[in-house]
Input
Amino acid sequence: MKQLLFVTLVTFSSLFSIAQSEKYVGAMKANIDKLYAAQTPEEYKAVAAAFERIADAEKNQWLPYYYASLAHVWRGFRDQSANKDEVAAKASSLLTKAEALETNAETAIVKNMIATIQMLVDPMTRFQTYGMEANKALVTAKKLDPENPRIYYLEGQSLMGTPAQFGGGKDKAKPVFQKSVQLYETFKPASELHPSWGKKNAEKLLEQCN
Output
């Protein structure tokens, strides 16, 4: 009788775990689609909040915190009326939670973008601090996963936005974008929930370098 009860409990627990996993995957996929389709500040805020709710429910998963942070980062870049320091602070707090669970190239990539947002508030006075932080994050990302195409997409962006007299420009950015696009051709995310963004933008920026 005890053995039957034990088997029943184990079976129920397994089925519950599968149901929870399916619910998590479904919610993540739906919100990843919303994030990639977002255009307005309100849409970025809404999807960031949705990922944060998932993260609070799935406390051992780093990806919801990662995507919540990424949503705020993209809002910071695209919403010209946003207080970029406040956006960066929110994104950073969420990324810290993701890194507490797992530190990898993807979290380092977002760290680069957070520092870039802070630098763009006042590039002339902030470059020494946040420009260095952004560069350090990409160096870390390369050590963790040198085949990640998003690293070179962001590096190319930085070079493209840097004046030629300071070592940047389209000629310097072009081979970096070429490497990014080449890596995207063979890059395979670890799962359907892992990051896959950046390819189309890298291709467009490469075209602009010609």
In short: The first helix runs from residue 2 to 37. Confidence is low (pLDDT under 50) at residues 4-19. The radius of gyration is 20 Å. Residues 22-129 form one domain.
